[in-house]
Amino acid sequence: MHSKIIVRELAEELDVSIEYLSTLFRRIEGICIKDYIMKEKIKLAENLLIYSEYSIEQIGLYLGFSSQSHFGTIFKKYENMTPKQYRNCYARKEFQ
Fold first, then answer.
1. Which end of the chain is less packed: N or C, by CB atoms within 10 Å?
2. 2 domain residue, yes or no
3. Is 41 domain-assigned?
4. What does the pLDDT read at residue 11?
């Protein structure tokens, strides 16, 4: 989860086609691989926003996002609030 995950590389590592991997994953998990990976990264980001003192930029880079802006855009897509809003709402008060 700490770097960019490329579906093609996953398929190559498993020695299957991208199409087969994607179809199988969707059939079993009910979600496409890219969405699953992003949801897992967002869950980890939520945890870091609540329980760590890392900056939003550090968290985004740690999770493999290309910039704080990209991280914020994706986070808002899944959580309907920015990482800063999320931290302000849910962070443990002794870290603020």
1. C
2. no
3. yes
4. 95
Would you state the pLDDT for residue 57? 95
**What pLDDT shows up at residue 9?**
93
Residue-level pLDDT at 81: 97
Crossing angle for the helix pair 18-29 and 7-14, nearest 10 degrees? 100
pLDDT value at residue 19: 96
- Within a domain: 73: yes
User: Which residues in the chain land under pLDDT 70?
Assistant: 93-96
| CATH number of the domain residue 59 falls in | 1.10.10.60
Domain membership of residue 56 as a residue range: 7-95
Q: Which of 29, 62, 32 is nearest to 48 (CA)?
A: 62
In a domain, 1, yes or no: no
